[in-house]
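go over this:
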Amino acid sequence: MQIYWTKINQIIEESAEVKTYMLDCPEGFTWEEGSHTHFALEGFNADEKPNRSLIRHMSISTLPHEGSIGITTRIKEQCSEFKSILRNLEVGHEVALFKTHSNVPLKRENKNIYLLSAGVGLATFRPLVLDYLQRNDNVNQIHSLNVDSSRAFLFTNVFESNPNQKLTTQFVDNRTAYYEEVKNLAQDKNGLFYIVGSDDFLVENISLLRKQGVHSEQIMLDKHEQQRPHFLSEEVTN
């Protein structure tokens, strides 16, 4: 396993609780839209066994052409040891990246794509939208629906409806409005539904989509292939 050590080159305050850490691109480090990585803090591998409390699974919120690796995360006042340390890091501090992979690349199958997310989960979808805006072939259209009770909606400069590009975006601040809209979107029986959020959020969305007649193969999750059956099994979603 290759570990890439790199430095923070910028910290962007997206909102009161959300920050994006922009990292230098180490030589040989590559990724694509929808990628996640293991993001680790200094000292995680100091002992014989890795200190898992200093490692988190994070989405990359940028594309390679932007020149930096973006890690966007919510840090609440009461937070874990990992987030507490991360909050105090500054430009120039080192972090580590390893095991980078994409479970949710943009599928170009001439279908409508629906991006369903909660809060900072939108960071996973930012690169997909940017990739689509650069090259929209074999995608009919994209619709993004995000729910965030804080109302501090993220990346509104990217998630902005653009009829010419067949991109529509929607932000709501409560789950009731969100799930009503998901029901409406699920009327498209041929669409592809990407979902990012907490495990409970995934289960609720999958259950709702299933009840509307959406099949498992139309549902894309930011989970390893071996984890998909757990979320898509009839027992979990019924």
In short: The domain at 4-102 is CATH 2.40.30.10 (Elongation Factor Tu (Ef-tu); domain 3). The mean pLDDT is 93.
